[in-house]
C-alpha cells in the first residue's frame, strides 16, 4: 500500500499561488494521485498548485493508489491567512512646494514597507513617508505582515498650483537700477515656466 505525504509551505496566503507536493513514504510505481484542497478544488497531479480565494482553515486530503488498487489517504489542516490591508485614509492632493505625509493606514500586523520610486520621499521603508514631488506622481508601497503575506497598493499624489505660489509682475523698468530690470515670474515650488 502506498503511504502518501503532503508537502507545502507552512505559510499560506489568500489569493497567492500555493505549491503542493505529493510524495510516498516508500517509493512505488504507477501511482494515481487524488487531491481535495478543502474548498472545492481538486487535482490528479502529483504536484499541483492552487489559489485559495478566501482566508480560513482548510482540510487538505491526498489519496494515493497504485496499479493493484491498494490505496491510502492522508489529511492535513492548513491555515490560509488574509493579506495585509492598505487603505488610503485622507486627501492625496497638495499645493506644490508644501509636500504631504502620505495618508495610508495598514493592518496592525504589517512589519515591513517598501516604497517605489524613491524620488522625493523622506524614507522608503516606513509606513507614511513625507513626499514632496513637483509633479503629480504615482507611488507604490509593498508591505509584508508577520505571517509572510504580501500586499501592494498604488497611491497617486496630485500636485496642485494656486495663485499664492507665484507672482507675475504687470510692469518692469529696464533702466539698469537693479530693481525690476528683468521681466520674469517669481514664486515658490515652481519647477519650470
Description:
The structure is a single chain. The chain is mostly beta strands and 193 residues long. 0% of the residues lie in helices and 47% in strands. It is built from no helices and 18 strands. A hairpin with a 5-residue loop joins strand 4 and strand 5.
In short:
Helices cover 0% and strands 47% of the residues.
Keywords:
four-stranded mixed β-sheet, five-stranded mixed β-sheet, 47% strand, mainly beta, single chain, 193 residues
How is this fold's topology laid out?
Elements: E1 4-8, E2 12-13, E3 17-24, E4 32-36, E5 42-43, E6 49-51, E7 56-65, E8 71-81, E9 86-88, E10 93-95, E11 100-101, E12 104-106, E13 110-116, E14 130-131, E15 137-145, E16 150-160, E17 166-167, E18 186-187
Parallel strand pairs: 2-8, 10-16
Antiparallel strand pairs: 1-3, 3-6, 4-5, 4-7, 7-8, 9-12, 11-14, 13-15, 15-16, 17-18
Major β-sheet annotation:
5 strands, mixed
The overall average pLDDT, rounded, is 89
Spatial order of the strands in the main sheet? 2-8-7-4-5
What is the ordering of alpha helices and beta strands?
Answer: EEEEEEEEEEEEEEEEEE
Amino acid at each position: 500500500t502506498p503511504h502518501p505525504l503532503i508537502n507545502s509551505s507552512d505559510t499560506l496566503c489568500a489569493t497567492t499561488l500555493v505549491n503542493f507536493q505529493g510524495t510516498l513514504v516508500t517509493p512505488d510505481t504507477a501511482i494515481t494521485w487524488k487531491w481535495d484542497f478543502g474548498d472545492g478544488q481538486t487535482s490528479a497531479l502529483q504536484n499541483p498548485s492552487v489559489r485559495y480565494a478566501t482566508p480560513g482553515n482548510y482540510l487538505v486530503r491526498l489519496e494515493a493508489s497504485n496499479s493493484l488498487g491498494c490505496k491510502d489517504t492522508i489529511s492535513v489542516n492548513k491555515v490560509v491567512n488574509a493579506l495585509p490591508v492598505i487603505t488610503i485614509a485622507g486627501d492625496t492632493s497638495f499645493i506644490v512646494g508644501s509636500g504631504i505625509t502620505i495618508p495610508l493606514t495598514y493592518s496592525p500586523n504589517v512589519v515591513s514597507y517598501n516604497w517605489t520610486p524613491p524620488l522625493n520621499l523622506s524614507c522608503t521603508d516606513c509606513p507614511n513617508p513625507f513626499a514632496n514631488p513637483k509633479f503629480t506622481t504615482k507611488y507604490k508601497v509593498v508591505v509584508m505582515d508577520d505571517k509572510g503575506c504580501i500586499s501592494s497598493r498604488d497611491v497617486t499624489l496630485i500636485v496642485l498650483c494656486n495663485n499664492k505660489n507665484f507672482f507675475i509682475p504687470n510692469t518692469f523698468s529696464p533702466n539698469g537700477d537693479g530693481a525690476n530690470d528683468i521681466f520674469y515670474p517669481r514664486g515658490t515650488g515652481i519647477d519650470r515656466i
